Structures are given as structure tokens and as C-alpha cells.
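Before relying on records like the one below, remember that each one covers exactly one chain. Contacts with other chains, cofactors or solvent are not represented anywhere in the record.
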Amino acid sequence: MILTGPAIACAVQTGEITIEPYDPARLSPNAYDWRLGDTLRVCDGDLDAATPTAFIEQPIPVTGLVLQPETLYLGVTLEKTGSETYAQMLNGDRTIGALGIWVHVSAPLGHQGHAIRWTLEIRAARPVRVYPGMTFGKLVFLTAFGAPVSYQQQPAKYASTDGIDISRLYEEIPGGVL
């Protein structure tokens, strides 16, 4: 089940959900509107799952930054979110989709216990200017069934993520760079 906006607000007040910074005006009927952080990593050159991705770190100026088609950008949410009680689902929304921006298509699930600033995969259909702190998507919280297991207590490769993180699939590929 998806929590309603009032249920999210209540869970933030009781400490069951963490959203930092939190603004109650960003609540919608079934979600919280999250924002784009102030930094992007521009992935450079060919991508190879067996090697770490080369990138250039690019701050997003207050005047904005134009995203280019055929470029993979890794961004980060402004908000740090998490919950030991609820799982999370992060998505882009219609407002950025209508600008031709695809965001976070491949990994929308945030496990119970994973309190993070989300790494975002961002692609643009056409050149489009983005700004730090702009609304970029919606975050929903889901009731989990069964015994809870905290992601932070698992031997997961992204458990210690604190900001933009490249793919670490190379750690699993025989012969990949470790």
C-alpha cells in the first residue's frame, strides 16, 4: 500500500520517515515532491560494465545547466530520505517528462533502512536547462509485509552511498576492475 500525504506527514513527525530537508508544502495526495541537488556527474566516453565509469563532476549553477541529448548524467536528490518502517519508490514526474527528461528509470526502489540522497540517472531528449533545487519527481512510501530487514545491515555495495555514485557492477564481473 502507498502512504497518503497526511500519513507521510505523520510518519515524518513520529520519526518513522526521514526527509531532510522537509517541507510540508511538498506533500501531494500520495507522494512527496523531491528536488534535484546542485551537482551532476557527466559520464565521459564509452561505458563498460567491467570498469568504473569515467566522469566529470559539474556543479549546477543557479542560472541553470543545459543537459544535452545522448549524454548520461548522474545527479543527486536534494533531500536525504529513508525509513526503517517503509520502502520507498522514487520516480520522475510529468513536469519533467514534459520537458523530455527521463530520470531514474532503472532503479526506483529504496529498501527499508536505506537513508540516502538518491543517485539519479538522467537523460534528455533535447537540450533542456535544469536548475538546482527544482522539483524533479515524486517519492512514495510503501508498506512492507513480512519481517523487516534493514538495508544498512546487509552486505550491499551501495549501503554506504552518500551522494552521487557510479555503477559498481564491475565488482561482480569476473576480470572486472576491483
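The helical segments are 5-14, 94-97.
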